[in-house]
Amino acid sequence: MKIYVDGKFCDEKNAKVSVFDHGLLYGDGIFEGLRAYHGRVFRLKEHIDRLFYSAKAILLTIPMSHADLMKAVLETCRRNRLREGYIRLVVTRGVGTLGLNPNRCKNPSVIIIADKIQLYPEEYYKRGLDIITVPTTRNLHSALNPAIKSLNYLNNILAKIEATNGGCEEAVMLNAQGFVAECTGDNLFIVKEGKLLTPPLSAGALYGITRQTVMDLAGQAGVAVSEPNLTRYDLFNADECFLTGTGAEIVPVVKIDGRVIGTGTPGPLTRQLTESYHSLTKVSGEPIYP
Ligand code: PXG
Question: Which atom of ligand 1 is nearest to the CA of 209?
Fold first, then answer.
């Protein structure tokens, strides 16, 4: 595997960062997770846009233009002969001294890995997931804004640990007000009386690119979409529930905190949107081999 590190392609064993990189020392950095389908990078521009928004929020200057970063992602895919897979784009604060001050880090590092990912076993896509609410709440906007896709994912990791300790693959994270925010690496949707609902970004959800795609697909299919605050009660009484994310794609949820959702099987709108999503990935995206 060839990995892009600061403008060069390295073999896996030589692709390394310094122990003085603040990405490692403090989680000071940002990332994106993208997917390639059928020889195209899906929603490339949107992911690069979000990376630049995360960078802006943490006062990190990405040492490349938007266009050059897009080219580097496509070139990394080509070097690895990738047609289907997962691309991890990371920008760290770079090498500095011990001590928090990011001004000591002169050169942010850009890393691109083009590989494979399977977040959930295939059977969950057919049968649906059983998920639970966990005690760890989503970060406060005023502390570490959940819109920033930072290298500091401990908030999500703690919630993930609580879910797996509880025998579940994924966690519902509430915000400090007790409203549903999202899951540890996915946005959450419910269907109620034919309408699609998902928590607003202000509840602590990431501006998910799959979330936006699914909302657009639902709109095109004539389904009403809204973003109200949701409580656990709303989830329990939903007709359908599913999660969205680049890694997970669209995963049906059939049980939450022991309550069976709808019929206990993946619902019709969930299945319809999953089909539309996969059809879209066949024709949309930046060609890797133009
Ligand atoms: N919420 C959070 C907290 C995320 O990290 C999403 C929602 C979904 O956003 P997108 O834009 O991907 O639809 C994410 C994305 C992984 C992995 O390695 C995690 C994500 C994406 C890809 C892989 O677990 N999270």
Answer: 11
